[in-house]
């Protein structure tokens, strides 16, 4: 029996319309471009800690497979490839996958991009690193989505996620101000679908993973996005599967 999809067609269409502008740092995805360096710092710290990598190593993911779920046009997948990983990116919007393929080719990077959802990957295909950044708040069933991510994680693997917290601050900052003033494309977020760290942790634990780190992501007026203890706006999370 086929599994029910976790893709929201309306969400996929919304992001598909943004595809051609995704790599423009001053375009509709400008906020993601500002956010990406902080996400990459968190990813690198998690990689170094998990696999005891020398921080000076330029290719800490060499010999490892990475899956970026909800990859958009490749803002995270391309850096993962440069870190040495064999990368697969998958996105619900075919338009995003197409733009991602074209940009990777222009950048001289070999990345496998797929259109669809994580549930439709080949049965038994596993990855050392799975990332799902700003994605879980857009799916129809977060429990099933997280279970699908966990199913793709190899024993001893690393799952990294980021998502907005469901607080009054996130409602005001991301929707009232962010979308209201055009800094984020209108209609990007549904506040009722945001997950608290406790809710996301519960989903991960139900999927057989354990959380090793949760870090807040805030916007500082002078420094831009920064990592810290304040999780009221957004947060990043690390989860692992025990060695089998």
Which tags fit this structure?
single chain; 244 residues; alpha/beta; Rossmann fold; 8-stranded mixed β-sheet; 7 helices; 8 strands; 33% helix
Brief sketch in words of this structure:
By secondary structure, the protein is an alpha/beta fold.
Rounded to an integer in angstroms, the radius of gyration calculated over CA atoms is 17 Å
Described by the principal axes of the CA atoms, the overall outline is globular
Report the β-strand fraction as a percent range: 15-25%
**What is the count of helical runs?**
7
Count of extended strands? 8
CATH superfamily: Vaccinia Virus protein VP39
On the 0 to 100 scale, the average pLDDT is 93
Q: Give the ordered list of helices and strands.
A: HHEHEHEEHEHHEEE
The description of the largest β-sheet is: 8 strands, mixed
The residue fraction in helices comes out at 25-40%
Low-confidence stretches: none
CATH architecture: 3-Layer(aba) Sandwich
**Going across the major beta sheet, what is the strand order?**
3-2-1-4-5-8-6-7
CATH topology: Rossmann fold
Layout of SSEs?
Elements: H1 9-16, H2 30-51, E1 65-69, H3 77-82, E2 86-91, H4 94-106, E3 112-115, E4 127-133, H5 142-151, E5 153-164, H6 168-179, H7 197-206, E6 210-220, E7 224-228, E8 234-240
Parallel strand pairs: 1-2, 1-4, 2-3, 4-5
Antiparallel strand pairs: 5-8, 6-7, 6-8
Describe this structure in words.
The chain is an alpha/beta fold. The protein has a single domain (9-52, 59-240), classed as Rossmann fold (3-Layer(aba) Sandwich), CATH 3.40.50.150. The chain is built from 7 helices and 8 strands. 42% of the residues are buried. The model has no long low-confidence stretch (mean pLDDT 93).
